[in-house]
Amino acid sequence: MTVKRKSEMTNHPVIDLTGPEGNAYVLLGYASRWGRELGMDTARIHKEMTSGDYHNLVRVFDREFGKHCTLVGEDDFVDDL
Questions:
Q1: pTM: predicted TM-score of the whole model, two decimal places
Q2: 3-state DSSP call for residue 74?
Q3: Which of 2, 37, 44, 80 has the fewest CB atoms within 10 Å of its CB?
Q4: Which residues make beta-bridge pairs with 15?
């Protein structure tokens, strides 16, 4: 994760991983909804997201949907990704 300039900011949703939106089930819900809207293989994404721990879930989510949203979290968590 990087600090962005104001000029680089977009209207993408911001998901705070330390809040309720960072809950694994909420992220899986976003993945299902956005995946359907984008014509992606949601079953494959869901399976990969749930194949490991929470860090894995966030990594896969970020890889698949990172260009559509901004994930923010605590420094130590982000450093572990």
A1: 0.82
A2: coil
A3: 2
A4: 71
